[in-house]
Design brief:
Layout lengths: L32 H17 L3 H5 L30 E5 L6 E5 L1 H15 L2 E5 L8 E6 L2 E11 L3 E14 L2 E16 L19 H10 L7 E4 L3 H12 L4 E4 L7 H4 L31 H14 L4 E2 L3 E7 L6 E6 L5 E6 L1 E4 L22 E4 L13 E5 L3 H12 L3 E5 L4 E5 L3 H6 L10 H9 L3 H18 L1 H9 L4 E2 L7 H7 L4 E4 L2 H6 L4 E3 L4 E4 L3 E4 L4 E3 L2 E4 L7 H8 L1 H6 L24 E3 L4 H19 L19
Parallel strand pairs: 1-7, 8-9, 8-14, 9-10, 14-26, 15-25, 16-17, 16-25, 17-21, 18-19, 18-20
Antiparallel strand pairs: 1-2, 3-5, 4-5, 5-6, 6-7, 11-12, 12-13, 22-23, 23-24
Helix pairs in contact: 5-17
Length: about 650
């Protein structure tokens, strides 16, 4: 097994509590994780329930580290000056009504001083059910922690937490301190989801069809929430709201639910495995393929909306939206497929339109008007057979570019990929299981537990762990990566050498989860051009900075999607859009900007992301809306982050 040294740590690993920093404590094989976790949680509950911040942290009070619940920052051993080990507390709504990551004991202290007493934490209970018992985990030879799960209550909610304790060497003995705590709001007291035994148990004889017609028509009522977009993000938010008894309507510009996937290029297929992609309340059947074809997913989304009785108006376009500054009520004008219009008055507006509502980004290149061939974006591309006998150039080298190039090559079409910058490549066969397989696989933990485990890692920790995993993935993918390098394809190690997931959260681009396209490039079935940047279009193709030229009949831009705020401008106009924060990317705490909560104006939310993210965070939007409706909070209680700066 690969070993790791703290002599020259990679910057991505600075947040990892490796054993060297902890004083190289010896952890005996007979450690009792449940006993240790139980003792720690008992003290935490005692201090937390009395609002005793010093009792929770006891930071640098004295040298008696055994009185401290959290790892003393910068402390590893009573005998030698240590390297600093930051501690973390990530909270999702439970303590802050926000998405916050607090790093370092001074920052955690400030947070607790502001919130601990008001939250009124109580009934803290260690979870020992099957699959939730405390464990001693050793993800790497120099990383060891006790992981445990717990439940708790606050003044208004029910929470679920995850803790990780690390062994700290003090005067020759190892004591266990918290390196990370994760707290998540699960439910609101008195307002549980209407599931299982709480669902409607009355029979319905001959009335259901008319009831559903009235529900969907909204003839004599206004929805509490208007959701724009019936892709996975909009459907999942509506499903969560319905389970909480909140009336919502989804408006979708396409003719059918699922058309946002159904109308994409024919070769489109998910590269996320099925275990990561389940939807709330209705997981995919066990017969489902591991990688879902786009059109199959489209049909599933359509059936999902029907099975869960979600209210959807298709062929309906949002014309504009304004907000009354006195009442905060939104007025949203929509136009239906029959030409009729309606203005809805709602308290909550959820934008679930994806990255820019599906508008592709096309870079500005000089001379495009003189090109005599065809140009299109991957969002407009349908199938390779549209260009039989043509010479095609694909601009881009990530997922869509690979998929479309392979489709062209399979149909005998001359296709060249132009790679503008390096790409992070990992295989779905070997690399992806190493990356997310421990949580999302056929025999892994239940999806709701996997989601919480995944969410419990702040970006600083996740980047450190993934930096190590990326190196291991590169070893198992070595043959393909070396093959790509041999033909000149440029590869990298991902965001700050930390691979795929940080790339997703920061850029939502820059990677390819290899399902076979890399071998096409290695075998030169897909030609490659990347020795110079594009200077301009010519009548017959492209000219590059080094003077070379590439002829083409068709040029397809696989250059990603544009700034999501473009879609906001079409709905709200420039004045409001200019005041809204950036959507996507990371803020200084490592939280995603502008999504899963109020984006700025009261009652305006943005929901977007892949299937896994939407499954988890859709409930958080629904809980916030339900809490507002029940008068439990006003959405702005503690420390909304300044989201004007993106971490590079």
């Amino acid at each position: 097994m690969q070993t790791y040294s703290n002599a020259t740590p990679h910057p991505a690993e600075t947040g990892l509590p490796n054993l060297t920093k902890l004083g190289n404590p010896k952890v005996p094989d007979n450690v009792d994780p449940q006993k240790i976790a139980s003792a720690w949680l008992k003290e935490f509950a005692k201090a937390g329930s009395t609002g005793d911040v010093d009792g929770v942290l006891s930071l640098f009070v004295d040298s008696d580290y055994q009185s401290d619940l959290f790892l003393p920052e910068g402390s590893t051993s009573a005998h030698s000056p240590p390297d600093a080990i930051p501690v973390f507390w990530r909270d999702i709504l439970a303590f802050t009504w926000d998405f916050r990551t607090f790093e370092g004991t001074p920052v955690i202290r400030e947070f607790l001083q502001a919130r601990l007493a008001e939250v009124n934490i109580s009934n803290v209970q260690l979870q020992t059910d099957a699959g939730l018992t405390p464990t001693l985990d050793k993800p790497f030879p120099d990383l060891t922690w006790i992981q445990f799960f717990f439940k708790f209550e606050t003044e208004v909610g029910l929470g679920f937490g995850i803790g990780r304790l690390v062994p700290l060497l003090v005067t020759g003995d190892a004591i266990w301190k918290a390196h990370l705590l994760f707290t998540n709001l699960e439910d609101l007291k008195g307002f549980p989801e209407q599931l299982g035994s709480r669902r409607n148990g009355l029979p319905n004889h001959g009335k259901w069809e008319e009831q559903r017609r009235k529900e969907v028509a909204f003839e004599d009522r206004e929805p509490t929430v208007l959701v724009v977009g019936a892709g996975q993000s909009g459907l999942e938010v509506a499903a969560r709201l319905k389970a909480l008894g909140v009336d919502s309507l989804i408006v979708e510009k396409n003719e059918k639910v699922g058309d946002n996937w159904r109308t994409r290029y024919d070769a489109l297929c998910l590269h996320d495995p099925v275990w990561y992609d389940h939807l709330p309340y209705l997981p995919f059947p066990s017969t489902w393929p591991v990688f879902t074809p786009a059109k199959k997913l489209a049909n599933w989304l359509e059936s999902y909306a029907e099975a869960l009785e979600l209210n959807v108006w298709t062929s309906t376009t949002v014309l504009n939206a304004t907000q009354d500054p006195q009442t905060n009520v939104w007025s949203i004008k929509v136009k239906k497929g029959d030409g009729s219009e309606r203005v809805f008055k709602v308290k909550h507006l959820v934008l679930a339109i994806g990255f820019l509502g599906g508008r592709g980004y096309t870079p500005t290149i000089a001379g495009i008007d003189k090109f005599k061939g065809q140009t299109l974006h991957s969002m407009e591309h349908k199938k390779a057979t549209d260009h039989l006998g043509k010479k095609v150039v694909i601009i881009g080298a990530c997922t869509s570019a690979h998929d479309i190039c392979v489709d062209y090559a399979d149909h005998g079409i001359d296709v060249t990929m132009f790679q503008r910058s390096s790409t992070y490549v990992l295989s779905t066969k070997r690399g992806v299981p190493m990356l997310i397989g421990p949580l999302y696989n056929e025999n892994g933990p239940p999806t709701h537990i996997a989601d919480r485990l995944s969410a419990s890692f702040p970006i600083t920790l996740l980047s450190g762990i993934h930096h190590r995993v990326v190196k291991l993935v590169a070893e198992v993918d070595k043959e393909v990566l070396e093959g790509l390098k041999s033909v000149g394809f440029r590869v990298n190690m991902g965001y700050k050498d930390a691979g795929l997931l940080p790339l997703v959260w920061t850029k939502a681009s820059g990677y390819y989860m290899d399902v076979g396209g890399s071998q096409y490039i290695i075998d030169k079935k897909i030609k490659l051009k990347n020795d110079s940047q594009i200077q301009e279009f010519t009548e017959t193709g492209l000219k590059f900075d080094n003077g070379s030229e590439l002829s083409a009949d068709v040029i397809v831009f696989c250059t990603g999607l544009a700034d999501p705020k473009y879609a906001l401008r079409t709905i709200f106009g420039d004045e409001l859009a200019d005041r809204l924060p950036q959507v996507w990317g990371l803020n200084q705490e490592g939280e995603i900007k502008g999504v899963f909560k109020e984006i700025g104006p009261k009652g305006l939310y943005v929901m977007m992301g892949n299937l896994g993210a939407c499954r988890f965070y859709s409930k958080h939007i629904a809980l916030q809306i339900k809490a507002v409706e029940e008068g439990l909070f006003d959405g702005r209680r503690y420390g909304r982050q300044d989201e004007t700066t993106v971490v590079p």
